[in-house]
Structure formats: C-alpha cells, structure tokens
Amino acid sequence: MAILGTFAFEEDFLTAAKNLTSSGFDRISLMSPIPVEEAQEIVGLHKSRVRHFSLAGAIIGCIGGFAMAVGTALVFILPTGGRAIITIPPFLIITYEMTILFGVLFTLLGFHFVSGLPAWKDRPYVISASVDRFVVVVEGTTGEQAAKAEAIIRDAGAEEIQHVEDSQ
Amino acid sequence: MFDHGQPTYAEVNKDIISTMLETGPKYWILLGSTMSLAGIFFFMPWIYQLFVGVGAAGMNRNAVWGTYLSNFIFWIGLSHSGTLLSAVLHITNSPWRKSIYRSAEAMTLFSLITAALFVMVHVGRVWFVHWSFPIPNQMGLWPNFRSPLMFDVMAITTYLTASSIFIYMGSVPDFAAVRDASTGVRRRLYAVFSFGWRGTAREWHTLGWAYTFFAVFVIPLAVSVHSIVSWDFALSAVPGFHHTIFAPYFVTGAIYSGTAGIVTVMYCLRKFLNFERYIGQVHLDSLGKLLIALSLIWSYINVLELFTTWYGGSSFELEALSFRMTGFYAPLYWEMILFCAFVPLLMLTRKIRWSWNKMLVISILINIGMLTERFIIVATSQPRKFLPDAFGFYVPSWIEISITIGSFGIFMTLFLIFIKWVPSISIYEVKETLKPLRRDA
C-alpha cells in the first residue's frame, strides 16, 4: 500500500520528507510543481549519471565521425586537384558535428535511463502536483509502518492524506 | 518581472494551458490564411518548377546560386537566436529567459525546417536529396566530406536534431501539466508526450542535468552552424565571398536577425494570446539592449570588410565592392545599411526601447535589412567573377519571389500549430520566478 500526503507549503513537505527518511522509510517519492533542490538532497541525489552518458556519446561521436569521414573517402576515392584523400582540416569539422550530435543523443538516452521514463504504468500520483501542491509518497508499507508514516505526514501539516495501490 | 501583478501557480497553469485548449474562429481564419499563403505562393510554384526544371528560376550560367540560397541563409540565421540565446541564458541563469525561451526555441525549429525546404527547392531534383547523406547504397556512392556543402548537411542535421530534443525535453513537465488539465484523447496523447512525468525529485534532478548538458552542446553547435554556412561562400575564391571575416560576420548577423525575430514573435504572442502578464517591459528592454549591441558589432564587421578590401588592394575585390555599393543593387545595399546599422540606434532611447509598437517596427526593419544582406551577398558576387567578358547578371524570377513570400506562410503555419500543441511559455520555469510556496513568503 502507498500513502500520499499532499502539502500546500514547501517547508511542510520538506519536513515530512526529512522525518520519513530519518525514520527509515526508503521507498519515498517527492513530487513538486517545480524543481526543489532540498528535496533532491533529502533523497540522496547529487551528481547525476547522465554526465557519463554525455561524455560517452561525445567520445563515440568524435571517433565515429572521424572514422566515417575517413572511411567514406577511402571507399569512394574522389581525387580532387591532386589533394590528399584523407584531409584532416575538413574532416575535423565533420568530427566536431558528430561529437555534438552523439553527445546530445546519448544525453537523451541517459535522461531516459536514469529517470526511468517513459513510465506509462499506473503509479501513485496527484494531479495537483503539476499545479501548486507538493506530494510525498511512501510505498511498500503495511500495518504499523503505514500508521507511523501516516502520522509523520500528518504531523508535518499535510492538507490531505490518501491510501492508494503501490506502483505496478 | 511581471507588469500586471504576480500570478499564482494555479493562474500560471490556467493562463498558459487555456491558450491551447480554447480556440476561437480568429485562430482558424489565421491558420487558413497562412496555409493558403504557403500552398499558393510556395508549394504551387515549387510543383511547377519540379515539372519544368530549375530553369524556371532566374538562375543562369553565371549565377547558379540565387534567391533560394539567400533565403536559406536568412532562415538559418533567423533560427539562431532561439536555441542559442535560450542555452546561453540558461547557463548564465538569467531569470528573464524563462517567459520567452520556449517560443524562441520553436522559432529556431521552424526556421530550420523552412531553410531546409529551400535547399530542396534549390537542388531541383529533390528526390535525390538523400544522396547527400552517408547512407549505404547500391551505387557505392558516398558523400565528399571535403566539400563545405557536406559540412552544411552534417551541421544542419545535427542542429535540427539537437534543437528538437532541446525544446522537447524542456517541455516534458509542461506536457504533464497539460495532461492533468485535459480529458479524453488529449489526455491520453499528452500522457504519451510527457513520458508519464510525475515531477518527482529524481525526474527533476535528471532533467536539470540533462538540460544543462543539452545547453552546453547546443552553444558551440549554433556557432558552428552559421560559420559553416559562411564557408559555403568563403571557401570559394569568388570576389566578395573570399573573406576570413565571413564566419563571425554570418554568426553575428544570424544572432542579430534571430533576436529581432524574437521581438516580433513576442509582440504577437503578447497581443494575440494575451500574455501581457508574462512578457513584459523587462523582456523588451533586455532584447532592445541586446539588439543595440548586436547592431554595433554587425556595423563594425561591415566597416572592417570595406577596410580590408580597400587595404588588400585586389582589383577583383574592389570591383565587387564597387558594384555592390554603386551598381544595380546599390539601393538594396544602402537600404540594408540604413535598416541594420542606423535604425537600431533609435533604441538607444528608453522611450523607443519600451514601446512595443516601435520595437515591432524596428525588429521587422532589421529583418528586412538582413534578408536584403543575404540577397546582396549572393546576387552581386557570383555572377561577376574575375573577367568582365564572363560577367553575368541575376534577377529573381516570379517563381523565386513567390516562393520567398510563401516561405513566411510555412513558418507562420508551423508556429500557429505549435501554439496549440505545446505551451508557448514554459509553465514550470515561470513558476520558478514567482514567490515560493512557503509560509514565510
């Protein structure tokens, strides 16, 4: 079972989140209409793994872009005015563009991988979280634990508490 | 930041999403008009040209590049400020970016699409356009990556891809807000668009990092794109083209016309979508100051071009310059100087910089000047290379003029469709500029 606490104020929401984590609840989701840096720190988010994807993409694009320019020049030899077949300065421009292209594509991949999106399955959610409410969700609790979580959320000043099914 | 009082979070959602959900007859009339403009002026002449060949255009043996390519540069240039400005202002954490960047990024995307269409119109046999991509084929044919035209293909493809991803990823939380405010098919559609976004700390954190990386990638990309477009010209030994200053000249011109384009688009959004509350004096003033700075840089580069041509002393370059300033197209040259170097100086006075109507007129004049600049570069240099007995002349045909007019119809149509599908102001970023939802606030 999941418990959803809806808050009108940011500090109440953060208090509930802090108290829940210090009480040992680890399946917590904190939803907000805007990014809240403190909420990210409470759930232990610091440097994102997205940066590894960006770096990997840029390196792959850099090597791949140069290899593509050289490879196609060798496969389809086009002598022009006695110039070299493998010409570094123009190929560096292709390399530059491919570095950026693959950097962007891998960053996108990284976003999906790290955030777990797309996720179109049913998950605990309150529509007002995209408007002006802050929501704390505690999942995987039953019995005494659920009552304890609910008490923490209520004490922090939740304006509404709901019991819903856990994420599928 | 807000001219008519601070809205609440709920009001921000309502104000912005209602422009998507509520559509009156005025919108459909406008959309019908822009679609007709695109259909009649752009696509019909293009179809005619496809049947009779590119000879229908005014291009000839000495002028193998014409209005299509000058328009291509214009639209690529117009695309420049959107994504570039948005990325730079994101990295520097400027609050005035938040109300205007989404539409500016859309402008980038649609300008790029329009520019790409001009390449297709220019090449004639558009059904072979895929030959310019490195795709394995039965002929064993591969692109020549030593050609600046191939740099262009790679740069513009990358820019189009990166700009699309940049605008889409920035819109994901807002798609979720639209999903939550709608019902039926629209709700299901936006559930797909938003990837099932819930606004959790992890999602915000990942988006923040990814978005910053997108911005970091996009800035050098945008600079490279117009530099590469300039090399289409500067890497050839044509008098009037062969200048080392061309890359910064094109990049500055691009950002300049793009910023003027943003002013025009912001005026329309403010007027027709009633965004007076979100797009205010601070935005107009900041854009006005940016335009003044850009006009000064642009003027400096123009003076530098004159100086280096004179100081270099090449008779071919001097002849090209003389034709540009005193020849058949001289009135267009001086119109460009007037609109792009002198008219923007009016913005030095706050009275003009703070007036939406005056700024609209100035922004349109700047873009007329920039469109002319691109035309002059193409039309006065290439037909008059080196030997006078080989001099030609270029005048656009009615088909080229019609297609030029029609391209504005394509851009406006795409923009009108955009405002009904994507929140034209970033909902969550506007909320970030409001007072936080705290007891003490």
Give the topology, please:
The complex is a heterodimer of chains A (168) and B (441).
Chain A: E1 2-7, H1 10-22, E2 28-31, H2 37-42, H3 50-75, H4 88-115, E3 134-138, H5 143-156, E4 160-164
Antiparallel strand pairs in A: 1-3, 1-4, 2-3
Helix pairs in contact in A: 1-5, 3-4
Chain B: H1 9-21, H2 25-52, H3 67-78, H4 80-91, H5 101-123, H6 148-181, H7 184-193, H8 201-234, H9 246-272, H10 281-312, H11 315-326, H12 330-342, H13 350-353, H14 356-381, H15 398-421, H16 427-432
What does the model show?
The complex is a heterodimer of chains A (168) and B (441). With 168 residues, chain A is of the alpha+beta class. Chain A contains five helices and four strands; from the N terminus they run βαβαααβαβ. Chain A has helices at 10-22, 37-42, 50-75, 88-115, 143-156; strands spanning 2-7, 28-31, 134-138, 160-164. In chain A, α1 packs antiparallel against α5 and α3 runs antiparallel to α4. Chain A is rod-shaped. The model of chain A has no long low-confidence stretch (mean pLDDT 90). Chain B is globular and about 80 Å long. Chain B has one domain (9-133, 143-432). The mean pLDDT of chain B is 90. Chains A and B meet through α1, β2, α2, α3 and α4 of A and α1, α6, α8 and α16 of B.
Q: Count the domains of chain A.
A: 2
Number of helices of chain B: 16
Q: Would you report the number of β strands of chain B?
A: 0
Q: How far do the termini of chain B sit from each other?
A: 17 Å
Short description:
With 168 residues, chain A is of the alpha+beta class.
